[in-house]
Amino acid sequence: MKVRIPTPLRSYTNQRPVVDADGETVSDVLDDLDRQFPGFRFRVADEQNRLRRHMKIWIDDEPVRDLATPIDDSAVVTIMQALSGG
């Protein structure tokens, strides 16, 4: 499946905005991304396997918060990171 990577995390993906990943759940996809791009998963999920508060994930057009959410191979996963500043 295709995974859209937010700009702040593209340093992990060699600046690629879209990468391929495999998995049956959101957690599996994050594991595969971490295998391909070491350190990626920690930026998205915490040690308790929960999505970090500033991260958002969509499967196609549906937002998800549960990393156990199943994903179809034809889905497009979008990872977004909230930005703050002053």
Can you give a write-up of this model?
The protein is an alpha+beta fold and 86 residues long. It has a single domain, classed as Ubiquitin-like (UB roll) (Roll), CATH 3.10.20. Helix content is 19%, strand content 23%. The chain contains 2 helices and 5 strands, in the order E-E-H-H-E-E-E. The radius of gyration is 12 Å and the shape is globular. The termini are far apart. The model has no long low-confidence stretch (mean pLDDT 94).
Rg over alpha carbons: 12 Å
Looking across the biggest beta sheet, what order are the strands in? 2-1-5-3-4
Order of helices and strands: EEHHEEE
Question: What would you call the structural class?
Answer: alpha+beta
The number of helical elements comes to: 2
CATH topology, anyone?
Ubiquitin-like (UB roll)
Give the tally of structural domains. 1
Beta-strand residue percentage: 15-25%
Overall mean confidence score, pLDDT:
94
CATH class: Alpha Beta
Number of strands: 5
CATH superfamily: Beta-grasp domain
What features would you highlight for this structure?
86 residues; alpha+beta; Ubiquitin-like (UB roll); five-stranded mixed beta sheet; 2 helices; 5 strands; 19% helix; 23% strand; globular
SSE diagram, text form:
Layout: E1 2-4, E2 18-20, H1 26-36, H2 40-44, E3 55-59, E4 62-64, E5 76-81
Parallel strand pairs: 1-5
Antiparallel strand pairs: 1-2, 3-4, 3-5
Can you give me a brief rundown of this structure?
The protein has two helices and five strands.
